[in-house]
What does this fold into?
Amino acid sequence: EIAAKKHYTVGGQIGGFYTHYDGLHFVTVKGAGHMVPTDKPAVAFHIIFSFLFDQKF
It folds into this structure.
């Protein structure tokens, strides 16, 4: 079963949306193209930090 999309915030604003299915996490970044770290560095840091340290969004 696919989980419902939920939003996450970075700095008090919506950074994008995430969902998961069968152990796979899918994250979108609002306002970013294929170079997320260049377009939205704070959001990219938040995503990577959360995955590395097993923290919730």
